[in-house]
Write a structure and sequence with these properties.
Immunoglobulin-like, five-stranded antiparallel β-sheet, alpha+beta, 50% helix
Length: 358
C-alpha cells in the first residue's frame, strides 16, 4: 500500500509540473503578443545578380526584391555605401506590384560594374521594414558571389612580337593643297568665261535694241494709259492705285518728252521747273498743275473722289499727252518730188511707145 501511494504521488507531482510549464509558456506568449515583441511578419527580401560570371567592365544588373505584408513599409539601402569593389553606373525605376490582402511586391534594380578580376562578392544588403505597429526590423540579403575575368585571354601563351620598321606616311596635305589650287583655277576660268559670255550677250542685245527706232514718247504714254484703263482698278475699288499709276505714267512721259526728272520731283518742284519753259503754253501748264494736284489729293490726303472726278482726271491725262506731243512736219516736198519723178517716167514711157509705133 505504501508503495502504491508513493507511485501515485510521483505521478501526481509530474502532472502538476507539466501543467505549470504549459501555463508558463502560454503566459509568456500572451505577454509577448501584448507588448508587441512578437511581430509575426511575412516580410521577405532577396538579392539577385543577372549572372555569376562576367568580364571586367561588363554592365551587371543587381535586383533587390522585398515582399511586404499589409501596413508594412520597406526602405531600401543606399547602395553606394555598401558596394566595395563595384561601381554604381545607373539606377532603374522602382517596380511595385500590389497583392491580395494589402501585401505588395517591391523590386528595385541597379546597374553596377566591376573593374577588378578574381572572385568578388556583393555583400549582404540591409533592408529596413517598419511594421504597422511601428516596430522596425532589419532584414539582410544573402551575399552574391561573382567571378570577374579579364578581357585578355590566354596571357601565358601570348608572344611578344618585335616592333615593325617605321613607315613614312605620305603627306596628304600636299595633295589636298594641289587639288584645291587646281579646283580654284578651274573655277576662276569658268567665272571669267561666264562673264565674257554675259558681256557679249549684253552687247549683242544692246546692238539689236539700238538698231531699232525708238518709239515716240507720246505713243508710249498713250499705250500705258490704255493698259491702266484695262486693269479694271476703278471697278475693283482700287482708286488710290489707279491715280498712282496714271500720275507715274504722265511723269515718265514728261521726263521723256522734256528731259526733266519728273518721277523724282514733287508736284511743286515739277510745276516750278516747267513754269519757265517756252515750248509749253500756259494752258498746258495749268492743265498739268491741276492734274498733278488732284492725283496728290488721292495719293496723300486720302481723298476719295467721285466717279465723275475720276473720269475727268483720266481724260486730262490723255489731253496732256495730246497737247504736248510734237507737231509732225508736213511731207509735201517729198510727195511733189515723187510726183514729178513719176510724171517724168510717164513721159519717157510715152516717147518710147511713140517711137515703136513709128
Amino acid at each position: 500500500m505504501r508503495g502504491y501511494r508513493g507511485a501515485d504521488m510521483m505521478k501526481h507531482k509530474s502532472a502538476e509540473k507539466t501543467q505549470i510549464s504549459w501555463r508558463t509558456l502560454l503566459g509568456a506568449l500572451l505577454l509577448l503578443g501584448a507588448l508587441g515583441a512578437w511581430p509575426a511578419t511575412a516580410s521577405q527580401v532577396q538579392a539577385r545578380l543577372d549572372t555569376s560570371r562576367a568580364r571586367i567592365g561588363d554592365r551587371l544588373t543587381l535586383t533587390l526584391t522585398a515582399h511586404s505584408a499589409a501596413g508594412e513599409t520597406v526602405q531600401f539601402p543606399d547602395l553606394k555605401s555598401h558596394l566595395d569593389k563595384f561601381v554604381l553606373l545607373d539606377e532603374l525605376p522602382a517596380e511595385r506590384v500590389e497583392e491580395e490582402g494589402g501585401a505588395a511586391l517591391i523590386r528595385r534594380s541597379w546597374i553596377i560594374a566591376a573593374f577588378e578580376t578574381g572572385r568578388l562578392e556583393v555583400s549582404g544588403l540591409p533592408l529596413a521594414v517598419m511594421h504597422a505597429d511601428g516596430v522596425v526590423d532589419t532584414l539582410w540579403t544573402e551575399p552574391l558571389p561573382l567571378d570577374v575575368i579579364s578581357l585578355v585571354q590566354d596571357t601565358l601563351d601570348a608572344q611578344i612580337r618585335p616592333l615593325r620598321d617605321l613607315v613614312e606616311a605620305q603627306r596628304l596635305w600636299k595633295r589636298i593643297a594641289f587639288w584645291a589650287v587646281v579646283g580654284l583655277a578651274v573655277l576662276a576660268a569658268l567665272l571669267i568665261l561666264w562673264r565674257r559670255y554675259l558681256r557679249r550677250r549684253a552687247d549683242r542685245l544692246a546692238g539689236d535694241v539700238s538698231s531699232l527706232p525708238a518709239r515716240p514718247a507720246h505713243l508710249v504714254a498713250l499705250d500705258e494709259l490704255d493698259r491702266i484703263k484695262s486693269l479694271g482698278l476703278i471697278e475693283n475699288g482700287e482708286i488710290k492705285r489707279f491715280h498712282i499709276l496714271v500720275s507715274e505714267a504722265i511723269r515718265r512721259y514728261l521726263e521723256a518728252r522734256y528731259g526733266v526728272l519728273a518721277p523724282e520731283m514733287t508736284t511743286w518742284e515739277l510745276t516750278a521747273v516747267l513754269r519757265d519753259r517756252r515750248d509749253m503754253d500756259s494752258g498746258l501748264k495749268e492743265l498739268l498743275r491741276g492734274f498733278l494736284e488732284d492725283c496728290d489729293m488721292v495719293k496723300f490726303a486720302k481723298y476719295v473722289p467721285k466717279i465723275v472726278e475720276i473720269n475727268a482726271t483720266f481724260n486730262r491725262a490723255y489731253e496732256i499727252v495730246e497737247k504736248s506731243r510734237p507737231v509732225e512736219q508736213p511731207q509735201a516736198p517729198a510727195d511733189n518730188a515723187s510726183a514729178a519723178d513719176s510724171a517724168q517716167g510717164a513721159e519717157v514711157a510715152a516717147e518710147e511707145s511713140a517711137g515703136e509705133r513709128r
